[in-house]
Amino acid sequence: MVKVFLFLFYFSVSLFGANYSFANINLNYFDWQHKAESEADQGDFSYVGFEGGVGWDGIDTYGFFNIENPLKSYNDESPDDLRFTGFGDVDVELGHNIKLHFQDYGLHSESFYVNDFVLGIGYKLSTDFGMWIRPFVGFHHTYSSYYDGLNGYMGGWLFNYDFKVFGKKCTIFQWNEIEFARDKEFYLDENNQPTGDGDSWGLNGAISGWFFFNDTLAAGIQYRYAKNKLGSSVYQAGTIYTVKYYFK
Question: How far apart are the C-alpha atoms of 77 and 81, rounded to whole Å?
Answer without folding.
Answer: 6
